[in-house]
Amino acid sequence: MPCCAIWKKPSAPGSATTAVPPGPSSASTSWIACSCAAGESVSAPVQEPRPLLICLMGPTASGKTDLAIDLARVLDCELVSVDSALVYRGLDIGSAKPDYPHHLVDIRDPDQPYSAADFAADAGRVVKDIVERGKTPLLVGGTMLYFRAFLEGLAAMPAADAATRAAIEAQAAEQGWPAVHRELAAVDPEAAARIHPNHSQRLCRALEVYRASGVPISEWQRRQADGGAAQRYRLCQLAICPRERAVLHRRIALRFEQMMAAGFLEEVRALHRRPALHPELPAIRAVGYRQLWHYLDGDCSLDEALERGIAATRQLAKRQLTWLRKWPGLNWLETDAAGNVLPPPRSHSAVEQCVEDLLQRALNFIGTAPHQ
């Protein structure tokens, strides 16, 4: 008879249907408890020498932070932030910085750029330390480039060059970023096809690499170095997102409203007063911060800034979902408006259904629906 996976919170020793969630302390063997229709309980050992690494991804406002916190409490994980805004000190309200401890939060000042290569190196050290202390690392966030850099590794492409970048930014100020995009398309059509003409940071980096080396960034990426974390760890990759796009859009608008009520404008105003900060820095280009910065510069009204901030957040979520739909080995956890996990939209094989039931039952530990 078919069986479904059951993963219950550890209770009394010797419970026939209790499976201890796998972690570094049991890296050599992980256990899945299956309950058959006949009432039998079968535990099947799966030999796996690599330690477990959990990755929880999702678009902004999907509920991933609250879910990660609840899973960390149940599974004895340590959280590692995968978010390009949370690395910066002083970007608190607008980045929805969590109170629960995360690694790689508040590690840079806003005038200090932080790259995907920086993240890959920092995350490598942090994850290794977590595993060595007998805990399970859980990476959570929505900066997909950081996930890719850490999991797949990065090619040894040219380092950032301030003079080249300044020249490209001056060109963009005079001609516009679409003109810079056309130049990139002429020398690296593959990269240009992946980068939106208004995505200034990625566009600048791609052209900077070509000008510095004469080799397109797409070619550097094909030479990608071996040794990404995906080779060293046993991955469990999850993505959480409302099934209906309208639900996500409502959450984005509500969260922006809540951030404004919590003092987001005052936070940006304090950053705006600091002479070392300017709108071309990656920290200030973060969604929400850029739009309020333009308001403080007198470029638009506050209502226009809020409208643009919400629209930019929706665009960010759309880009994140584009990444996620192409991401290999991803287990989707779709939610309803209340944050409850929905059943899969289509049937699968018995083995796949077993895994899906395991994931959903693990989420039953959560007492309240995720809301952030």
Automatic annotation (TrEMBL):
InterPro entries tied to this protein: Dimethylallyltransferase, IPT, P-loop_NTPase
Binding site for ATP: 58-65
Pfam families reported for this sequence: IPPT (PF01715)
Sequence positions that bind substrate: 60-65
Enzyme Commission numbers on file: 2.5.1.75
The reaction(s) this protein catalyses: adenosine(37) in tRNA + dimethylallyl diphosphate = N(6)-dimethylallyladenosine(37) in tRNA + diphosphate
Record keywords: ATP-binding, Magnesium, Nucleotide-binding, Transferase, tRNA processing
Region (Interaction with substrate tRNA) location: 83-86, 201-205
Superkingdom of the organism of origin: Bacteria
GO biological process, one term: tRNA modification
GO-annotated molecular function: ATP binding; tRNA dimethylallyltransferase activity
Residues the UniProt record annotates as site (Interaction with substrate tRNA): 143, 165
Subunit-level organization: Monomer.
Family of this protein: Belongs to the IPP transferase family.
Record-linked HAMAP family: IPP_trans
Stored NCBIfam families: miaA
Protein name, as recorded: tRNA dimethylallyltransferase
Protein species of origin: Parahaliea aestuarii
